[in-house]
Amino acid sequence: MELTANIIRDELVERCKQGDTQSFQTLYRQYSKAMFNTSLRIVNNTADAEDVLQESFLDAFRSLHDFHYRSTFGAWLKKIVINKSINILRKRRNDLVDMENTELQALPEEEGINEEEIKYRVEEVKKMITRLPDGYRTVLSLYLLEGYDHEEISQILNISHNTVRTQYVRAKQKLLSLIKQV
């Protein structure tokens, strides 16, 4: 079933490359909700997420000739959405501080979450994530919600691996602090 879905999507992409507007619309319907949610988790603003969604699809459709199936269309599109979302954050302000030249205490390895913290409902935690500063929210969302590892995040954000780890640990600490306040 998965293989069939991929073949159908690949066929849609090929039709789009040939200018088939119906295929454009079909791909948009298939991916728009997921891409909107991806952007919203990063930019934390509905209007910005909608702008990112529209610009990402326009760029993707204009650049289809550059898509060569090294990844799935969805993964390729998600990377465009993430990059545009990050650009929105950079325009607002740069909360990601380069820590490479700063002396840092050794960070503890990622700690397990205790049972009490696990009991919080997913929606409550997502609401708390939206209250994090942009930099923390971006790293945390890319790691926990989008499934990127620290190295991939460092490449996406163009920051060092240590900065990603630091931002992630601090985001977790801030998130736990927010949760405990409730």
Automatic annotation (TrEMBL):
Biological process (GO), any one: DNA-templated transcription initiation
Gene3D superfamilies to which the protein is assigned, alphabetical: 1.10.1740.10, Winged helix-like DNA-binding domain superfamily/Winged helix DNA-binding domain (1.10.10.10)
One function term, GO molecular function aspect: sigma factor activity
Keyword GTP-binding: no
Keywords from the named record: DNA-binding, Sigma factor, Transcription, Transcription regulation
Domain RNA polymerase sigma factor 70 region 4 type: 124-175
Record bears the keyword Metal-binding: no
Sequence ranges assigned to domain RNA polymerase sigma-70 region in this UniProt record: 27-93
Family (UniProt): Belongs to the sigma-70 factor family. ECF subfamily.
Name of the protein in its database record: RNA polymerase sigma factor
Organism (species): Niastella koreensis (strain DSM 17620 / KACC 11465 / NBRC 106392 / GR20-10)
